[in-house]
Amino acid sequence: MLNTQSQLLVKEGYILHVNGTGRFADPGGPYADAGITGRKIVVDPYGGMARHGGGAFSGKDPTKVDRSATYYTRWAAKHVVAAGLATRCEIQVAYVIGVAAPVSLRVETFGKGTISEEELTERVSRVFDFRPAAISRDLKLHRPLYSATSAGGHFGRPPTSEGHLSGKDWINHV
Asked: pTM of the full predicted structure?
């Protein structure tokens, strides 16, 4: 397997994660991860407009990036737009279980950015901390706020927990 992967995927600096926690998930099941939604989860990220990894939002605590990183990437993308750096923005992140920082971060502006996506990705990764503990801290996700999102959706109404950094303040950070 490794020989085949090395021929196809491995480049300079490539890191292959196999079981990022370093231990077998025992006990597994609800002790490790829980979330029963009862909803078609494609409805949560704008009815399929935003890309989605497939994990449910409802029923997840803030340590689960299925929910928290989705909230945070939306929050960061809204700041990119508020700062005037794009009129449309999507931020994509990828995580490995057991590794706090994302293994990949990419900003997509669909041709609507005022600077290159590479530069914007670098700025976003420098200003916003995408580790789960930082996400929970910045968005205050340990407060009791989830019943409203479970009943009425996660996005599109006035925020109950999102922090705010004005567009002007965000530009000053970059």
From this structure: 0.69
